[in-house]
Write a structure and sequence with these properties.
By secondary structure, the chain is mainly alpha-helical. Helices cover 44% and strands 5% of the residues. It contains three helices and two strands.
């Protein structure tokens, strides 16, 4: 939390609960620790809505990274049929959430999500 203002560090909302997510699992179930890298010694704190959008951004980023691995023929979670379907569905969910919110996401653009969805649609789904 910004110890001086107590406000969300994405949208500036004050007076509500603030959260940070530093430990957890990524979209594909792999553990991550956002606070371990020496470059991240100042965690950011977000309101409930921005926290949700930050999680959507993380999932979007994970799916995009796995898609990029497919392009260079590295092992990718998306080469598994179930993970490919999950990722496609998650992108549709992310797009629906972005369309359903009144304010634009501070972390994601619908255009970027649409582009990744289109890129995934160009692939043949693994079985």
């Amino acid at each position: 939390m910004d110890s001086w203002s107590g406000s969300c560090q994405a949208c500036g909302t004050q007076g509500g609960p603030l959260m940070k997510f530093s430990l957890g699992k990524d979209f594909f179930g792999r553990p991550y620790d956002r606070l371990s890298p020496s470059s991240d010694q100042n965690p950011k704190w977000y309101c409930t809505l921005c926290s949700m959008h930050k999680n959507l951004q993380r999932d979007f980023r994970d799916i995009g990274a796995e898609f990029d691995k497919l392009g260079v023929r590295h092992g990718s979670e998306l080469s598994k049929g179930d993970e490919f379907r999950r990722a496609s569905l998650r992108l549709q969910e992310i797009m629906a959430i972005l369309r359903g919110t009144q304010q634009p996401s501070p972390f994601l653009s619908g255009h970027d999500v649409t582009l990744l969805m289109e890129r995934l649609n160009t692939l043949t789904m693994p079985v």
